[in-house]
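Allow me, if you will, to draw on your knowledge of protein folds for a short while. I have a record of one protein: its chain in single-letter code and its fold written as discrete structure tokens. The full record is reproduced below for your convenience:
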Amino acid sequence: MSLSRKIGGRPLLLAGFGSLLLLMVLAGGYPLRTLEQVRRSDLAERDNYLQRDRALDRIQTGFYQSAIIMRDFLLALGEKSAAGQIERFTQSREQTDQALADCAVPGAWPGLGRYGGAGTSSGRRVPCSFHSGDRDQSGGGVASCKLKLT
């Protein structure tokens, strides 16, 4: 008892509560660090989702544009107009392929490589071309169009 009276009770209490406060700060710091890592991971996943969503919107737009361009090609009356539609189709196809490459995850869909897109696992494309000379020129209307897959 004489030792505790010599040292005094107040410094022992301060050391005890100080160490308790230090333990509480350390115990609170770890969850905050973990929470920050979860937040960063969540932001990265959200950005990835939004990027892929925009790419899928571009792919859908490319499909719609290709359908409109094909219709215009089939309805074109002159060779010059048909050649312009072919150029527009080529540009639309390149943009759609780029959008496919932007949202492709390598190895996620192995079967996609058969159908095209620059970012697919096999890197193959299905090149296609259509030529204004392939159109049926009878009677001002278009009876058929040959789409050549090469």
Remarks:
- Residues 113-127, 136-150 have pLDDT under 50 and may be disordered.
- The helical segments are 2-7, 9-75, 79-103.
